[in-house]
Amino acid sequence: MAPRNVFLTGGTGYMGSRLIPLLLARGHKIRALARQGSENKLPAGCEIVIGNALEKKSFAAQVQPSDTFVQLVGVAHPSPSKGEQFRAIDLVFARASIAAAGEGNIQHFVYVSVAQPAPMMKDYLAVRAEGESLLRASGMNATILRPWYVLGPGHRWPYTLIPAYWICERLPATRAGARRLGLVTLNQMLNALVRAVETPASGTRILEVPEIRKASIR
């Protein structure tokens, strides 16, 4: 496995703060974007890049010499009431990060999207789908991960839905939807992100919930 030089955004967040130590422990170099004043929230061992995730010009020149871009910025605790935030934050940053990665000659872009289609969270789905379209149009090699809900510390209430998922996955009429919109654990998601970094895609690779669940690292 060749060590990767990773430019990572969202490093102080729920997944990013846990992913950085994993990647560092496996020999990868991490350069993490942080706002002025938030750099002390980043895990130790990464190189800090000060910038505003919503303003491409504040960080685009600092993407090189990274070869991999991992995009984890997004509105925390998505809900149907946050449509304006999705458009003002998630979509704006998707545009900025994809453009900056293209200018920086990134070889592989890792993008966390959302499972789709789905019967709810229309604004969130629309914004993430547009991010996927922008990434395809860029021509960069990319891995797109499509979780629905990530179970972990502070994110445990959907455990009550597991019996319903178990039933729906066994009924022909609901099996496909239940698998596509299934729950993944935080560890499964982190494993899938590590695998995405370490095995760059050629073209666009989509990891749906079943593929995220199967991801493993050695």
Summarize the entry for a quick read:
The chain has 218 residues and is α/β, with parallel strands linked by helices.
Number of helices: 7
Shape: globular
Percent of residues in beta strands: 15-25%
What is the residue-averaged pLDDT? 90
Estimate the helix proportion, in percent.
Answer: 25-40%
Question: Would you list the SSEs in sequence order as H and E?
Answer: EHEEEHEHEEHHEHEH
Distance between the termini: 11 Å
What value does the Rg take, in angstroms? 17 Å
Strand order of the largest sheet: 3-2-1-4-5-6-9
Low-confidence segments, ≥5 residues, pLDDT <50?
Answer: none
Going by helix content, strand content and strand pairing, the class is alpha/beta
Number of strands: 9
Biggest β-sheet strands, sense, barrel = 7 strands, parallel
Topology of helices and strands:
Layout: E1 5-9, H1 16-25, E2 29-34, E3 47-50, E4 68-71, H2 83-103, E5 108-112, H3 122-138, E6 141-145, E7 149-151, H4 162-168, H5 175-180, E8 183-185, H6 186-198, E9 204-207, H7 209-214
Helix pairs in contact: 2-3
Characteristics:
7 helices; 218 residues; globular; alpha/beta; two-stranded parallel sheet
Explain the overall architecture.
By secondary structure, this protein is of the alpha/beta class. It is 37% helix and 18% strand. It has 7 helices and 9 strands; from the N terminus they run E-H-E-E-E-H-E-H-E-E-H-H-E-H-E-H. The chain has a 7-stranded parallel sheet, sandwiched between helices. Helix 2 packs parallel to helix 3. The radius of gyration is 17 Å and the shape is globular. The model has no long low-confidence stretch (mean pLDDT 90).
